[in-house]
Write a structure and sequence with these properties.
Helix 2 packs parallel to helix 7, helix 3 packs antiparallel against helix 4 and helix 6 runs parallel beside helix 9. With about 400 residues, this protein is mainly alpha-helical. The relative contact order is 0.11. The protein contains 20 helices and no strands. The longest helix has 27 residues. The chain folds into 3 domains: about 190 residues, no CATH class; about 80 residues; about 120 residues, no CATH class.
């Protein structure tokens, strides 16, 4: 199998073999989820050292997997290599460059590497990683991203303890809910950069808790220099804390100024040609009937969830943020598993609540999004079934 000759093996269109490997991952996550549920429901919750040790053990086990299910780390490395070679990662680039990383990414992405959709800070980090590890070869460069993501994910443990509000027990539970989530552990081990962006956001919130509201909001906004969703955290701070508004505005202005190449690339090269087929989502459940119906259903459910969340926030119930987070989640046509890290971070505010449990379950069922890529594009009936299974945790909110 040609795929197996790649420096880092990604399961792509492997049919029955891909289904078997994905089933093994899902079974392992389901088993780990039982321990995870016990950890976040118990009183008292695990100490932070135990939580970090458990997450580190999970990352180590995941690192020994012979395969992964996402090609993102190839794209990260290619963007860093393009920047190192003086090419623009935010523009469609000729992939005939005589660079092993670019060639490997081009093969992995079917010869059509998408333009970079990450912030300039991440591109600089990618450039640094591939440059430092270049003497060790392509496998080391790819695994360098996985190591950085794993380290950032572990750092989110003590940062969560410093960032979340409430008693020591509440904050320890939040750290455990975030760091021991088996889907989040797997995605960090795959090398996804969401852990990096979340670490920046949590650093900002930790500063806010120490009465540096403006500075903290600015730092949280800077997470968008890694991945754009980070800006939503600063926006939330600006809504709930008047002292944070100036800092959030300054941070957003810095992000806007530095992200002009990214915005230009997305607007001129990605948006006009972008097409998507919803998979493993609420839209995927209705898409076989009508694409317009699928979007309308997702919007309707999101509005209901948003109204429920706002009512709870009006009554000063922190669980309201989780309802809003789930509302945003159902709007995503392709909720990839690593997006779930953001949902878990919101759920960690009240993981024992009804919405918290639903959000955690959604982060786990998001692993089903691997199926269309790992096995084969599903038929309309299978597409709807996959959407139903992936969104089933929403029933916990009824």
């Amino acid at each position: 199998m040609t795929d197996a000759a790649q420096p880092l093996v990604v399961v792509t269109d492997w049919g029955a073999r891909g289904a078997a490997l994905l089933a093994i991952l899902l079974a392992a996550v389901a088993a780990a989820a039982l321990l995870y549920g016990g950890a976040i429901m118990r009183s008292p919750p695990p100490r932070i050292a135990v939580t970090i040790a458990g997450a580190a053990a999970g990352l180590l086990l995941a690192a020994f997997s012979p395969v992964i299910f996402s090609s993102d780390v190839y794209a990260y490395a290619a963007y860093g290599d393009l920047a190192r070679l003086g090419a623009d990662p935010y523009a469609r680039t000729a992939l005939s460059l005589d660079a092993p990383l670019v060639r490997a990414a081009a093969w992995q992405w079917g010869g059509a590497l998408p333009i970079c959709v990450y912030g300039p800070a991440f591109v600089e980090l990618a450039k640094t990683i591939v440059s430092i590890l270049a003497p060790l070869g392509v496998p080391a460069q790819l695994n360098g991203f996985r190591l950085v993501a794993a380290a950032a994910f572990l750092l989110c443990g003590p940062l969560a303890l410093a960032a979340y509000r409430g008693s020591v027990e509440v904050r320890l539970r939040a750290a455990a809910a975030l760091l021991l989530n088996p889907a989040a552990i797997w995605c960090a081990a795959e090398g996804h950069n969401d852990a990096l962006a979340l670490a920046v956001v949590l650093s900002g919130f930790a500063l806010v808790r120490r009465h540096w509201a403006g500075v903290g909001a600015a730092v949280a906004a800077l997470a968008a220099l890694v991945k754009l969703p980070g800006i939503a955290a600063a926006a939330a701070l600006a809504v709930v804390d008047r002292r944070a508004r100036l800092g959030a505005a300054i941070g957003a202005a810095v992000v806007a100024a530095l992200s002009i190449p990214l915005v230009t690339g997305v607007a001129t090269q990605l948006a006009p040609h972008g097409r998507y087929a919803p998979q493993a989502s609420l839209q995927a459940l209705f898409a076989p009937l009508s694409p317009a119906l699928a979007v309308a259903a997702a919007v309707a459910v999101a509005i209901v969830l948003a109204v429920a969340g706002l009512r709870r926030l009006k009554n000063r119930a922190v669980e309201g943020w989780i309802w809003l987070g789930i509302g945003a989640w159902v709007l995503v046509p392709n909720p990839y598993p690593w997006y779930g890290l953001w949902l878990v971070a919101i759920a960690a505010t009240a993981p024992q609540s009804r919405a918290g449990r639903a959000a955690v379950l959604l982060s786990l069922t998001a692993l089903l999004r691997y199926a269309p890529d790992a096995i084969a594009t599903p038929s309309p009936a299978l597409q709807a079934a996959l959407g139903l299974l992936a969104t089933l945790p929403l029933a916990a909110l009824l």
